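Sharing a chain and its predicted structure for anyone who wants a worked example. Both blocks are below, sequence first, tokens second.
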Amino acid sequence: MTRATTASPRNWKIPQISPLAGLILGIMILLICLVYSVTLGAAEIPLNKILESFILFDGSYEHLVIQTVRLPRSLVALLVGSSLAVAGALMQGLTRNPLADPGILGIESGAALAVVTTIFVFGSSSLSVLTIVAFLGAGATAMLVYLLGSLGKGGATPLNLTVAGAALTALISSLTTAILIVSQRTLEEIRFWLAGSLAGRDFDILLSALPFVVIGLVIAFVLGRQITTMSLGEDVAKGLGQETAWVKITTAISVVLLAGSSVSLAGPIGFIGLVVPHMVRFFIKADYRWILPYSAVVGATLLLVADVAARVLLKPQELPVGVMTALVGAPFFVYLAKSKVKK
């Protein structure tokens, strides 16, 4: 008599699909989340009304809400989520630092300080001016973090860069807070934005940053093979004939474009760039030709879901989406700091 045997959990295998099929599946999930995001808000609008607003727009209240409020907000979430996730993946691959992220290394804080300072000194500025100012702040902060990290023992190690980024973030945040305390007008204009918010975003804001995001993403995707090589170590990359200096410069340009655009669109939203690349590596281990587009899709999906949660948890009031991403990202940051950072 034979006994039936059960498979050991150790022998279970996750079904494998091709990277392209997985990416297509991710895009389909993203589109579903996008439609769901457009349906949610203070007023319940059925799906058929959403479809009618695109096909037979009649200027009714529901159609106006969809076209001028919810759709732009959801598209901004998509753009910001993909930008931050790709920027984080680029930084982690280039520096081999598992904690690299536009927020943790101070790039978002630098962009935010530049925007706050501009509004404080010159008053309300145009969207194009604030976007350029955010780029300048992000770029200056990135260079300063790398310089400070290089001064430590062993050079720009992951630990040195993380410590330098944390210290500079604290300093920049203090300066930003000081400006807001001095200027009540500035605080009133951007206090919700500083927490990371997608509320009130329209197509004008979206279109002002769209060219910079597209350029940053194109550069990132073109660099996929080079970042894969750099992730093996700079010496290995040089041995394979790669021009590492040009890769670093081009990657920095892409990161500044993506992070600066994100800050100008929605303020400093943390942890998307940290969490998403690690999520993607559960499926794509080391090939940045796939990690980068996967990060774009997963980052956009994650921020859309976070924005939906921010709208429904305290309905009819809403939370800044930056609060929702922090709730997920902060414990993940502690886990990575304990398990993966090496001197």
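Comments welcome. The chain has a mean pLDDT of 81.
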